[in-house]
Write a structure and sequence with these properties.
Elements (H helix, E strand, L loop, with lengths): L1 H24 L7 E4 L2 E4 L2 E2 L2 E5 L15 H11 L3 E4 L6 H9 L3 E6 L14 H8 L5 E8 L12 H18 L5 E6 L4 H5 L6 E5 L7 H10 L4 E5 L5 E2 L9 E2 L1 H16 L5 E6 L49 H11 L5
Parallel strand pairs: 4-5, 4-13, 5-6, 6-7, 7-8, 8-9, 9-10, 10-13
Antiparallel strand pairs: 1-2, 2-3, 11-12
Helix pairs in contact: 8-9
Length: 343
């Protein structure tokens, strides 16, 4: 008993001294993420996004689930991924802690109308910001995902979205001085988008320009001095038709070639572009039919921007399949990501 009391007393002294030190030096600070010119900085050091879009939905489900997180993080670490982009907030400190421990930053996306779940329409997004703004896993906050394609969601006037987005960004700035605010815009923003979105610090762009997005960097350079990154880009592993030497059906080589070309274009333009979150980590069987089976097709329209068949087969976009088996593109991404350092 005396020994226990003595140890307790000694421990109390340590806690007291620690408290004094913390009081004198101020509370421990989270990573400071900022922008300078065209660069994103983490603790004043340039940060290059070697990323992946991450929305893990198990076979047979339509809901995101982190039950495979341990394996997913191990695969990401192997591939050299340093950033994930999520389409809705992760309201689980344990999950964020796991990403922090792995050295992976998280871009947190807020939707406009998510039924009141930390969304922009209800205003509850700011509760999430204040809850997690000191977590070191956070890279920045991101508002919307290519909403510019959907004015019908905003009473037929896309200006309503840009104003709501800009007001949300302003509110985040007033509550969090440690992280920038971004948006994921569909393609290059026009003058209307830029003029109504002054509070956006970083412009993410979902860009599908076949297997070479190089032209967008020149176009962005001409219209804005702010940082940008590709919030989505990539190719799928299913060819609807035989084209350009790639056979119809499951075709991992087509995906690997497309993603290699896209990533080379991104990282050859780091004077303008701060990186990419390639779409996407795992195949999503919930997107185009029965979630128990992998189906070609999907709701996204055909486009000449999708390599190489012009058809976005949405359930085949992962760099690993639903069972986490690595596709050919995984190894090509790994070569590029692990070989990169910021210039």
């Amino acid at each position: 008993m005396i020994k226990k009391i003595t140890l307790g007393f000694q421990y109390g002294i340590v806690l007291l001294l620690t408290g004094i030190l913390i009081s004198c030096s101020g509370n421990a600070k989270s990573d400071l993420v900022s922008v300078s010119g065209r660069q994103i900085l983490v603790n004043k050091t340039p940060y290059l996004i070697k990323g992946i879009c991450y929305h893990p939905v198990p076979k047979g489900s339509e809901k995101r689930d982190f039950g495979n997180l341990t394996q997913d993080i191990a695969l990401m670490a192997e591939a050299g991924i340093n950033t994930i982009r999520v389409y809705e907030p992760i309201d689980d400190k344990v999950v964020l802690d796991r990403f922090k421990a792995a050295g992976i930053k998280v871009i947190i996306g807020f939707g406009y109308n998510q039924g009141g779940f930390y969304d922009i329409r209800s205003g509850s997004f700011i509760d999430y910001v204040n809850k997690y703004k000191d977590h070191d896993a956070i890279l920045f906050w991101e508002l919307g995902n290519e909403y510019n394609y959907h004015p019908e969601w905003f009473e037929g006037d896309i200006k309503n979205w840009y104003r709501a987005m800009d007001n949300a960004a302003d509110l985040i700035h007033k509550n969090d001085l440690s992280h920038p605010v971004a948006t994921a815009h569909g393609e290059l923003p026009d003058s209307l988008a830029l003029s109504l979105s002054k509070n956006i610090d970083v412009w993410g762009m979902n860009v599908y320009r076949f297997d070479d997005p190089s032209s967008i960097f020149t176009e962005w350079n001409a219209i804005s001095p702010k940082p940008m990154y590709l919030s989505e880009a990539g190719g799928d592993s299913y060819m609807t038709i035989t084209k350009d030497g790639y056979e119809a059906g499951n075709n991992q080589k087509a995906q690997a070639d497309a993603n290699t070309s896209i990533l080379n274009a991104v990282f050859n333009n780091t004077d303008i572009c701060s990186g990419v979150t390639l779409f996407s980590f795992t195949d999503g069987w919930w997107k185009a039919g029965n979630p128990e089976t992998q189906d070609p097709g999907g709701w996204a329209p055909n486009s000449t921007g999708v390599p190489y068949d012009g058809t976005p087969n949405e359930e085949f976009w992962g760099i690993v399949d639903i069972e986490r088996k690595k596709k050919e593109t995984f190894y090509e991404i790994k070569k590029i990501y692990t070989g990169l350092t910021h210039p």
